[in-house]
Amino acid sequence: MKNIFRIHRRVEPGQYRLVELFWDIRTYGILPAIFADAEEIDGVMAHTKVFVVDRRSEMFVDNDDGSITIGLTHLREASDEFLYLDIIHELCHVKQHLQGRNLYDRSKAYVDRETEIEAYQVTVQEARRIGLKDEAIANYLRVSWITPEEHKRLVRRLDVTEKYDLT
Length: 167
Hints:
Blueprint: E1 14-17, H1 18-21, H2 31-34, H3 38-47, E2 49-53, E3 59-61, E4 68-71, H4 72-77, H5 80-98, H6 114-129, H7 134-140, H8 148-157
Parallel strand pairs: 2-4
Antiparallel strand pairs: 1-2, 3-4
Helix pairs in contact: 5-6
């Protein structure tokens, strides 16, 4: 897929605004599906802090203040499509944070948390819209902090077709 996202990857660790890293984020057609209206989108764009940190971490939202943290290695090395899907996923969590929801309910496995399922449903829908096939989406859903069994459960729950070696 050709690069259709304008992502500033050559930043140093520090604090940024969303538009400083994702230059065309305001044009993302998925935003109205996440946020209530243009006013809410404007507020998120104006007030959400993004921290780039010199760690191998991917992306996550701070449950206390709704800020987004991105690992420098991830920002520099992940594909445009995966970074785009990550920011969409995290914006769903920003919305959930604004609603006062607990993003990290430790009483449930990561793949069973309502907040994760909701965010991944939006992300998978958007992945399909931008042309990713289920194999690529399943690969996107494969993250280091879940087991292979949890990955299978997640892709099934999201109706993503994945081929598994059952030998």
